[in-house]
Known about the structure:
30% helix
Amino acid sequence: MSDFLNPPSEQQLDRVRQRLQDLLAYPREELDIELKGWLDLSSEDDKANLAQALLALANHGGGYVLIGFVEVAGVWGPAQSRPPDLSACTQDDVKPPDLSDLLDILKKVKGHETGWPPWWVPTRNEIRPYVYDGLIECWLGEGDLADPAHSDFWRASPQGMLFLLRGYQEDSAPEEFPPGTRFDLTIPIWRVRILLKI
């Protein structure tokens, strides 16, 4: 987080400006570039759409979201719904969500998981998320969820930083083999795939 606290140098800003000019001239999607049609940021659905893209990029290590583009026959170009200028838009339209809005965003995220999703938002009082140190935090290691495969701990910040700690599923059956003696190679790959598809 220290990078966010130090202002960028003029040289860094010049590189970012050049990168943005290149992306606007030749738009394309990559792991660190997300293109969206025009988003009306007064709409809660469009705000959630943008927030989801920003969270995904933050988890990837950063990147760019370009708004107002559509793909036609494999070529990206300006969306017809895009306004001629951005004078009506301000930075306040894309400010980080407050904690209540962030929790609502997390509730709406739909992934392609086969079990419960990462950063699942339970509603039972004893395991529901809570605010801690300016973040949303959740500990699922209580009661009937106390085995390693189900005892997730996660944190989420309004700036899009997410953390998930999940136990090893193979350590949840001590009657079959002692914890720490087996490692299933496929489950971590499967779970990383789920995170990449969110």
